[in-house]
Design brief:
This protein has seven helices and six strands. The N and C termini lie close together (11 Å). The longest helix is centred in the N-terminal third of the chain and has 12 residues. Strand 3 and strand 4 form a beta hairpin. Helix 1 packs across helix 7. The chain has a single domain, classed as Rossmann fold, CATH 3.40.50. It has 157 residues and is an alpha/beta fold.
Length: 157
């Protein structure tokens, strides 16, 4: 059994998780903001999160930290949905425990979108400020990377 667990504020990581669930139709899809699955019940686990201010969501981080020992013994993939392509490695190193980074069969970015339309309040303000603060020459993801999602899914077929 495969678990796809995700946390998403803007909906981009959710969209990526839903695409993965279509590529892996037997997988269970769980929103970490709404429930906490028991990873010991699964053979393989994919954990995904959006990125906000250079870090994965609190719900995804709590799930990874709480279940680190179990997750490191399973077939594991970790994805982030991030708009700033150049920050991927920094986010992964800062947010994902080393033992999980080293044991994952796939870890990386599946692209993303900097879209404030689905956000409210402070999150919307932060997204708008981030889009204005893009440095010249900085690479931005403008959509999900379907090739990366296919590659990730291939490890679980």
């Amino acid at each position: 059994m495969i678990l796809i667990a995700y946390a998403s504020k803007s909906g981009v990581a959710k969209e990526a998780a839903e695409i993965l669930s279509k590529l892996l139709p037997s997988a269970d899809l769980v929103d970490l903001a709404k429930e906490t699955p028991q990873p010991e019940s699964y053979d393989a686990i994919i954990v995904g999160s959006g990125v906000r201010i250079g870090a994965i969501s609190k719900a995804a981080r709590a799930f990874l930290d709480t279940h680190k020992a179990i997750l490191s013994s399973k077939k594991l993939a970790i994805f982030i949905a991030n708009s700033f392509a150049d920050s991927t490695n920094e986010v992964l190193e800062a947010s994902i425990p080393r033992e999980l980074r080293e044991s994952a069969v796939w870890i990386g970015s599946v692209g993303g979108k900097l879209d404030a339309a689905n956000l409210r309040g402070l999150d919307k303000v932060i997204a708008k400020a981030a889009s204005k603060a893009v440095k010249e020459g900085q690479r931005l993801h403008e959509e999900l990377n379907h090739t990366a999602l296919e590659e990730l899914a291939s490890h679980f077929r």
